[in-house]
């Protein structure tokens, strides 16, 4: 009798163990690795740049650039198909409003993560580390660094961190804001500006496409810019899913290939190791 009771007890313990394990596995199974796209879809609206080669550029209806590659990778990881993607061209000064108004669901537009911006939007990432640089005329030998900008006319894109970056470091600089980088390049070529400031890759792209061989990137960065993926406040699950997708992109080789393609397409020398945040952190 005692042996039978021991056997029953052992079987009961084994049964309870199996049931407990099944409960745990069921709980884990409810946490899908794919984001619930129905919370955004059926269409997903992505805010991007259209006039900055290397980052976000549109020519003959074809989009290219690092921001575009990263966006496509993330959306695929989240479960979206290409037919669901709606691209929305934005100027830098329009980014926060575009998210807050619901015009776009996500922004990948050379968008640096900053404290003030994080008060209006949530960021995933970063997915790229850049730095503020200077674009000058090749024939102008007066400017060799940010310290030479005192009293000089410096063009920067409105709504970018580059405006504040120059004002903080060279209060004597005459900062001229334009709505897009092409307008700054035009001002530089025409002599209405002595330099253009912005992130290195953006300046290299502008010079390659619009500079006519007359401009030079100094290659002396003086800030660190962390490009992030912006979404509306209050979507922690979406932020986590994007971070997971970025981690995959950086570990499977896709990120490195995209960075190299973007840089080589505009003749930009880049150090992938210095530009790569591992893992994605805020």
Residue fraction in strands: 15-25%
**SS field, number of helical segments:** 10
The CATH top-level class label of the largest domain? Alpha Beta
Which blocks of ≥5 consecutive residues have pLDDT under 50? 1-33
How many β strands by DSSP?
13
Question: What would you say the CATH architecture of the largest domain is?
Answer: 3-Layer(aba) Sandwich
GO cellular component, one term: outer membrane-bounded periplasmic space
Family: Belongs to the bacterial solute-binding protein 3 family.
Organism: Bifidobacterium xylocopae
Domain Solute-binding protein family 3/N-terminal: 43-259
Task: Tell me what you see in this structure.
The chain folds into 2 domains: 37-130 and 224-275, D-Maltodextrin-Binding Protein, domain 2; 132-217, Periplasmic binding protein-like II (D-Maltodextrin-Binding Protein, domain 2). A hairpin with a 3-residue loop joins β2 (51-52) and β3 (56-59). It starts with a helix and ends in a 7-residue tail after the last helix. The strands form 4 sheets. A 5-stranded mixed β-sheet has the order 10-9-11-8-12, sandwiched between helices. It is of the alpha/beta class and 282 residues long. The chain contains 10 helices and 13 strands. Belongs to the bacterial solute-binding protein 3 family. This is ABC transporter substrate-binding protein. It holds the Pfam family SBP_bac_3.
């Amino acid at each position: 009798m005692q042996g039978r009771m021991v056997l029953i007890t052992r079987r009961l313990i084994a049964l309870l163990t199996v049931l407990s394990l099944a409960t745990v596995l069921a709980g884990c199974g409810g946490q899908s690795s794919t984001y619930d796209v129905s919370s955004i879809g059926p269409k997903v609206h992505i805010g991007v740049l259209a006039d900055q080669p290397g980052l976000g550029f549109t020519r003959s209806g074809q989009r290219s650039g690092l921001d575009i590659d990263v966006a496509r990778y993330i959306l695929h990881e989240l479960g979206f198909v290409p037919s669901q993607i709606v691209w929305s061209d934005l100027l830098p000064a329009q980014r926060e409003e575009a998210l807050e108004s619901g015009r776009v669901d996500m922004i990948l537009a050379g968008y640096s993560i900053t404290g003030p911006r994080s008060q209006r939007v949530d960021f995933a990432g970063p997915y790229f580390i850049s730095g503020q640089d200077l674009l000058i005329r090749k024939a102008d030998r007066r400017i060799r660094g940010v310290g030479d900008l005192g009293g000089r006319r410096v063009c920067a894109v409105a709504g970018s961190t580059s405006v504040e970056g120059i004002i903080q470091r060279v209060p004597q600089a005459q900062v001229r804001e334009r709505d897009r980088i092409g307008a700054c390049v035009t001002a530089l070529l025409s002599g209405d500006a002595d330099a253009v400031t912005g992130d290195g890759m953006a300046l290299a792209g502008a010079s390659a496409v619009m500079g006519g061989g007359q401009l030079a990137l100094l290659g002396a960065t003086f800030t660190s810019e962390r490009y992030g993926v912006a979404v509306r406040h209050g979507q922690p699950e979406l932020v986590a899913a994007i971070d997971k997708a970025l981690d995959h992109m950086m570990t499977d080789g896709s990120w490195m290939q995209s960075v190299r393609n973007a840089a080589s397409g505009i003749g930009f020398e880049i150090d992938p190791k210095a530009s790569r945040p591992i893992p994605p952190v805020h």
